[in-house]
Design brief:
With 802 residues, the chain is an alpha+beta fold. It folds into three domains: 2-43 and 282-453 and 671-801, no CATH class; 54-272, no CATH class; 465-663, no CATH class. The protein contains 26 helices and 25 strands. Strands 1, 2, 3, 4, 5, 6, 7, 8, 9, 10, 11, 12, 13 and 14 form a 14-stranded mixed β-sheet that branches. A six-stranded mixed barrel has the order 17-18-23-20-22-21. Strands 16-24-15-25 form a four-stranded antiparallel β-sheet. β9 and β10 form a beta hairpin. It is globular, with a radius of gyration of 34 Å.
């Protein structure tokens, strides 16, 4: 019986090659892209789940409530917090702390210098808590001895080629020598911790020991493992008493919570200073899951519409089978078998499509997905599940619809297209194009927002700004000499130094400030960002001075002066800011400063954030030393970079130069949005392609069914245009209805997405009209060829062939 089902399915599908090809192509596109999106989503939700203790592993989060208007969460704690938890609560089985107390390390390996920023210093039990796979070395003892280091595989190859690195010595300029005690596999991409090397204690001086016992200095990334996950509620309820005991008066403004490690990647948007470099977005998980489901639905709708529209050609077959004694169950099984054959052929083709598409998809997402013998077993179950789902969705209705046809009507060739069945297919087409319009509107909105980000006036000129990190005290001491030599290089227009730069990727110093004259309405204390600029920053960045003066370059005169941005002037309610005296407090000795100027607000953070209050001190300020050179350069970058490298290396021969261009750094703030935009583009294109494939098939079968009618109309004098409009009108009406239904959904989804930006575009009607018009034109183009062909056929041939 089953053999006959497959034999009949083969005959039916090969007899209708065009119908079969359209269905297979539509299903293949739907399965392949949906599977890729679901694989991406699976990766996003599986972060850190590979650790054997992941269900009992938590990160300690500190909440600062000192400012009621701006409660802030941090992924760091004080260093003694972990040991105190372990000794106080028997429910805590172990803790581990990570530190990264300076940025760049300069490594000397066999006389060759390397820069290394991607590292941590960890407690000795790190590899007992986190399950990173060792290639060589013992995970239990690798970090037991001070001045030990474990490398990832790619780092070991970069430093030692194919030689065995175990036991090799690395000279670190800041800390002395360390010994390689282990090599681990490169970290999984779904780990929130990403590093190239991890050290045991490399500091053992009195200052380090004092820091490790300080309840006031935050800086430790602390993780705890519980005996049982459920005991976390008991520990959290005891935190107020615990912090009061150990942190004293500070505990009034501090709150501690514990974040499950598997939540870090998707639920840390509001957490600052965590060990992770990037976050995922839960909203994108929902969006991409929905997009994958949309494509599956669109592909399934195609199959349902095409199969039911083809019912007329199979009516007599069904009638004969029923007269011969076939049961409804057998007919249903037959048609479901045909669906399974088509979907499994589509599955095989979709695997090939995924293999070709993954390199491009990986470029978009930053992942490393691949189809090979090793990963096929990992990806195949998901693809197989999607295939079965789409087979059931797409095959059930046509199977029961066709099996329900009455044998007498079928054998007499009586019309069986009821208004109800036609309305159902119309509704499916409307749903199909509604989903496509939502995706296209989303693509346009995201593209417009990204374009807005690129072109918005952010308050300074970001083009051709070369930023050089200062990683040496010797360079800081001689910065003026270096600055002069850099400025003399052909192609360098200006040079400035600063402690931080607009578009900063490191932490910006924060201070508390108040107006010394007690201005009416001014807050007692305002939290503000602080940067140190020299006298050339205004010209180099083309910042606009709104009032007063800028720094003169006289260190003695400028060291007590500051320049404010407009945001802090407004927040402090300074009616006449020039000449005002402010008191800056950082928890240390208060610093009284005089305001000499006001600059126009500029976006020193991403456009996700509103411009915050900013105090600009002179480069010689007591709060923060200089950390960057900024060079405004002209064309001929490579020649300039080569000359700059030569100058810098003369003053800091031990540290390889670190530089980047500011516009590229600013673009990195919007990586997730760019990924989403490209995925939406791809999804929008595919959804339209699949929908138009279905529309092409429907138009073809509708014309076949109305061939005689078209011939008669032509005999009666209908023009080719009349016949084209007759065939096309129903489809255009369906697309119009889809547009009306899709607009509110698209507006809601995109408005929610845009709310993540403090500076955003407006959702104008033009965006929706553009998307609707595009879909309308594509639908018209899809049916036009077949409609025009039908309209041009001789009426004699139409009546003869009918």
């Amino acid at each position: 019986m089953i053999r006959n089902y497959f034999k009949t399915a083969y005959r039916s599908l090969t007899r209708n090659k065009g119908f079969t090809l359209i269905n297979i192509l539509g299903l293949s596109l739907g399965i392949s892209f949906s599977a890729m999106l679901f694989i991406y989503v699976k990766s996003e939700v599986s972060y850190d789940s590979f650790h054997s203790k992941s269900d009992k592993l938590f990160r300690v989060i500190t909440t600062d409530k000192s400012n009621p208007e701006s409660t802030r969460q941090y992924g760091v704690t004080v260093p003694p917090f972990g040991p105190a938890l372990k000794s106080t609560f028997p429910e805590v089985s172990e803790f581990v702390r990570l530190h990264r107390f300076i940025g760049q390390l300069v490594l000397d390996i066999n006389g060759v210098n390397f820069n290394e920023r991607n590292w941590f210093c960890a407690d000795s039990n790190f590899f007992n808590v986190f399950d990173f796979v060792f290639i060589s070395g013992d995970k239990l003892t690798a970090l037991q001895e001070p001045h030990s280091v474990v490398l990832t595989k790619s780092t070991a190859q970069r430093y030692f080629s194919d030689n065995d690195p175990i036991g090799k010595i690395i000279e670190i300029k800041s800390f002395g020598t360390v010994k390689v005690t282990g090599v681990i596999k490169d970290l999984p991409v779904n780990s929130h911790l990403q590093f190239d090397m991890i050290f045991s204690d490399i500091l053992n001086n009195d200052g380090w020991k004092k820091y490790l016992n300080s309840w006031r200095n935050f800086g430790a990334y602390t993780y705890v493992v519980l005996n049982e996950r459920k005991s976390i509620s008991k520990i959290e309820s005891a935190m107020p008493e615990f912090t009061k005991k150990f942190q004293g008066p500070d505990s009034e403004f501090l709150e501690t919570r514990f974040q499950p490690i598997q939540d870090i990647h998707l639920y840390s948007d509001t957490i600052e200073e965590g060990a992770e470099e990037t976050h995922g977005r839960l909203s994108y998980v929902y969006i991409f899951s929905s997009m994958a489901a949309f494509l599956l639905v669109i592909a399934a709708i195609n199959y349902i519409n095409l199969t039911t529209s083809k019912a007329g050609s199979r009516a007599k077959e069904i009638g004969v089978r029923k007269v011969a004694g076939a049961y409804k169950f057998q007919l249903v099984s037959q048609f479901l078998t045909e669906t399974l054959v088509i979907t499994f052929i589509s599955l095989i083709i979709s695997i090939g499509m995924m293999d070709m598409a993954f390199p491009y998809f990986n470029t978009i997402t930053g992942k490393d997905f691949d189809i090979n013998l090793n990963t096929l077993n990992e990806h195949l179950p998901l693809s197989l599940l999607i295939t079965i789902i789409i087979a059931v969705l797409a095959g059930s209705y046509p199977a029961f619809y066709l099996a329900r046809l009455k044998p007498i009507s079928s054998l007499r060739a009586q019309p069986f297209y009821t208004k109800r069945s036609l309305d159902f297919r119309t509704a499916l087409v409307v749903v199909q194009f509604s989903l496509s319009i939502v995706l296209i509107v989303s693509t346009i909105v995201i593209g417009n927002q990204l374009s807005f980000i690129q072109t918005k006036d952010i308050g300074f000129d970001k083009e051709q700004l070369m930023i050089i990190d200062i990683n040496s005290g010797n360079v800081r001491k001689q910065f003026q000499t270096i600055k002069n030599e850099l400025a003399s290089i052909p192609g360098v227009k200006s040079v400035a130094v600063s402690s931080r730069v607009p578009g900063e990727w490191k932490n910006i110093r924060e201070v508390f400030v108040r107006s010394a004259d007690g201005s009416s309405g001014a807050p007692d204390s305002l939290e503000s960002y602080f940067m140190g600029f020299d006298e050339d920053m205004l010209r180099t960045y083309k910042l606009d001075l709104e009032a007063g003066n800028y720094f003169s370059g006289n260190t003695q005169l400028d060291s007590g002066n500051v320049v404010l941005n407009e945001a802090i002037v407004k927040s402090l309610n300074l009616k006449n800011p020039i000449g005002s005296v402010l008191t800056i407090s950082t928890g240390e000795r208060p610093w009284a400063v005089k305001v000499i100027g006001v600059v126009r607000d500029f976006n020193f953070q991403s456009l996700h954030q509103k411009i915050a209050p900013m105090i600009i001190g002179y480069q010689s300020n007591p709060l923060q030393s200089i950390d960057y050179f900024t060079l405004k350069i002209s064309n001929g970058e490579q020649a300039v970079i080569k000359a700059v490298t030569t100058v810098y290396s003369k003053f800091d021969p031990e540290s390889p130069i670190e530089y980047h261009f500011l516009d590229q750094q600013l673009n990195s703030f919007y990586v997730e949005e760019k990924k989403a935009g490209m995925i939406f583009q791809l999804g929008g294109v595919l959804s339209i392609v699949v929908a138009c494939l279905g529309l092409l098939g429907l138009a073809n079968y509708q014309i076949e069914r109305r061939t005689k009618e078209l011939g008669i109309r032509k005999v009666l004098g209908a023009s080719g245009t009349n016949l084209f409009m007759l065939v096309s009108s129903s489809f255009l009406r369906q697309v119009t209805i889809a547009f009306v239904l899709a607009c509110p959904v698209a507006y809601y989804v995109m408005n929610q997405w845009l709310n993540a930006f403090q500076y955003r575009i407006t959702l104008s009607a033009g965006i929706f009209l553009l998307a609707g018009g595009l879909v309308l034109l594509l639908a018209l183009a899809t049916v036009s060829f077949r409609s025009i062909t039908a309209a041009r056929v001789s009426p004699v041939d139409s009546l003869k062939n009918e």
